[in-house]
């Protein structure tokens, strides 16, 4: 059969609230034209993030009831530990309440002034946790990854030559760790190839540098390898995942993505001395090493989610449903990052609304219009999120790309929801010349996109 169906039945449903366009205009104005400040109840289809928004399975909900809430040595911890080890084969598995908690612990210990961490592209919390220690976070994405309109199978790869040159420039002793973000969220959810992972391993061996994954979307990355990389078509996703992790010394993970749960994360590693330091810090900031900021029931749900996320029927549906939305938008002429990534479609706002200059935030304008037109909540990933001001002139230094992310929660929306999303985007695209720029009238000194308030120009 050609039709790819959702590989699940729906047992519990959650009604969504419909609003009128007039109501949405008022709601958006009251929220300062910032979709983060809208009540979720006033959103029809919520594509703000794929993080912590998964629908859990009946087995996961059963796990919630089975959760062992003992403070120390809970049965649920050992199930969690076994599930993470099955994937990573790492020796030490440290639970955390979400991804950035693992990052905070790892980088607090390894970071500090004069240190450099290198990645294909660091996600913003990862970068923030590195910079918070006084260290620098360096992104060395491969060239093709910087061109939204060009298709390539592995646009998330790190530039291997640039990596080696950088190591020689600043000295291997100043680089505690190289990290690959799989898939590359900030660069369009694009995957990293096994070959690239292997090459980074070689370089890290040559210079004796640690190599870690930011593993949030490891299963989606593995499925892309199965689909696109020679030699992997006949391997199971589990085999591919295990091979990927066999090349790294550790990982930070937000279980809110590819563990199909609403909260959770981990830090996995092989280095005993470092693990001990991390656990000691964990006790101060997260909790005892067998729960690390989570309840026993959360650990059960993660363990179960890790089995479900590498199911090939699930991944086939998952990757296809993003691609399906991408194809519909491309057919309507909407410019997006190509090819579609693993968890989201990224609209290229520069090409969508070329009449709005970066200083007037074209991405934000599209975000607002998608909400008004059809009640969609999306997020700007461009100069609102990453723009900086020139210290001398006070002028905006725009982000490299102006994007709008439509992140698709896992197992939450059906094909007709996705059809509706495509219709709304197309409608806004068809009257794109009417879109207006925005100016910021309030902003916080850091991570301004969460709380900024805007005004149409
Ligand atoms: N790394 C990547 C690649 C991420 O996408 C995220 C979160 C994190 C780390 C941090 O994990 O939220 O559990 O602390 N990304 C979310 C998003 C927030 O919407 O893309 P966390």
Summarize the structure.
With 457 residues, the chain is an alpha/beta fold. It has helices spanning 21-30, 58-66, 75-88, 99-110, 124-132, 160-170, 194-207, 218-228, 237-246, 272-285, 296-309, 312-331, 349-352, 362-374, 383-386, 415-430; strands at residues 45-46, 92-96, 116-119, 136-139, 177-181, 210-214, 250-254, 265-269, 344-348, 376-377, 379-381, 388-389, 396-397, 403-407, 438-442, 453-456.
Reconstruct the topology from this structure.
Blueprint: H1 21-30, E1 45-46, H2 58-66, H3 75-88, E2 92-96, H4 99-110, E3 116-119, H5 124-132, E4 136-139, H6 160-170, E5 177-181, H7 194-207, E6 210-214, H8 218-228, H9 237-246, E7 250-254, E8 265-269, H10 272-285, H11 296-309, H12 312-331, E9 344-348, H13 349-352, H14 362-374, E10 376-377, E11 379-381, H15 383-386, E12 388-389, E13 396-397, E14 403-407, H16 415-430, E15 438-442, E16 453-456
Parallel strand pairs: 1-10, 3-4, 3-5, 5-6, 6-7
Antiparallel strand pairs: 2-8, 7-8, 9-14, 11-14, 12-13, 15-16
Helix pairs in contact: 1-14, 2-11, 3-11, 4-5, 6-7, 8-9, 8-12, 12-16, 14-16
Question: Explain this structure to me?
Answer:
This protein is of the alpha/beta class and 457 residues long. It has 2 domains: 175 residues, Alpha-Beta Complex (Aspartate Aminotransferase, domain 1); 251 residues, Type I PLP-dependent aspartate aminotransferase-like (Major domain) (Aspartate Aminotransferase, domain 2, 3-Layer(aba) Sandwich), CATH 3.40.640. Strands 2-8-7-6-5-3-4 form a 7-stranded mixed beta sheet, sandwiched between helices. A 3-stranded antiparallel beta sheet has the order 9-14-11. The protein has a two-stranded parallel ribbon with strand order 1-10. The longest helix has 20 residues. The structure holds ligand F0G. The site of ligand F0G has 15 residues, from helix 4 and helix 5.
């Amino acid at each position: 059969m050609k039709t790819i169906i959702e590989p699940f039945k729906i047992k519990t449903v959650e009604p969504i609230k419909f609003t009128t366009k007039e109501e949405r205009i008022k709601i958006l104005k009251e929220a300062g034209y910032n979709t983060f400040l809208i009540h979720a109840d006033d959103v029809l289809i919520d594509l703000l993030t794929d993080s912590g928004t998964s629908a859990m399975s009946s087995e996961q909900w059963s796990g919630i009831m089975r959760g062992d809430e003992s403070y120390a040595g809970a049965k649920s911890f050992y199930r969690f530990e076994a599930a993470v080890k099955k994937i990573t084969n790492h020796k030490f598995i440290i639970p955390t309440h979400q991804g950035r908690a693992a990052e905070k612990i790892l980088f607090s210990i390894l970071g500090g002034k004069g240190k450099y961490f290198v990645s294909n592209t660091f996600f913003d919390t990862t970068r923030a946790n590195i910079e918070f220690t006084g260290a620098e976070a360096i992104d060395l994405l491969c060239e093709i990854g910087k061109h939204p309109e060009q298709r390539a199978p592995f646009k998330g790869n790190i530039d291997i030559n640039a990596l080696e040159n950088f190591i020689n420039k600043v000295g291997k002793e100043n680089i505690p760790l190289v990290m690959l973000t799989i898939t590359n969220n900030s660069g369009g959810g694009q995957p990293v190839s096994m070959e690239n992972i292997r090459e980074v391993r070689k370089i890290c061996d040559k210079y004796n540098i640690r190599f870690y994954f930011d593993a949030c979307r490891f299963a989606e990355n593995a499925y892309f390898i199965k689909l696109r990389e020679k030699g992997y078509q006949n391997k199971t996703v589990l085999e591919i995942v295990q091979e990927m992790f066999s090349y790294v010394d550790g990982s930070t993970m937000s279980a809110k993505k590819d563990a199909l749960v609403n909260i959770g994360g981990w830090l996995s590693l092989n280095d005993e001395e470092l693990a001990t330091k991390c656990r000691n810090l964990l006790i101060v900031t997260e909790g005892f090493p067998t729960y690390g900021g989570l309840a026993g029931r959360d650990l059960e749900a993660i363990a179960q989610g890790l089995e479900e996320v590498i199911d090939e029927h699930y991944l086939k549906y998952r990757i296809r449903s993003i691609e399906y939305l991408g194809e519909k938008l491309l057919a309507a002429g909407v410019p997006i990052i190509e090819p579609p990534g693993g968890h989201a479609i990224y609209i290229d706002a520069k090409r969508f609304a070329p009449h709005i200059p970066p200083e007037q935030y074209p991405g934000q304008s599209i975000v607002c219009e998608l909400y008004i037109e059809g009640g969609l909540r999306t997020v700007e990933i461009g100069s609102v999120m990453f723009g900086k001001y020139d210290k001398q002139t006070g002028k905006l230094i725009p982000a490299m790309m102006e994007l709008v992310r439509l992140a698709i929660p896992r197992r939450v929306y059906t094909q007709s929801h996705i059809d509706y999303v495509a219709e709304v985007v197309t409608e806004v695209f068809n009257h794109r010349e009417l879109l207006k720029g925005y100016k910021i009238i309030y902003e916080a000194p850091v991570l301004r996109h969460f709380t900024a308030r805007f005004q149409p120009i």
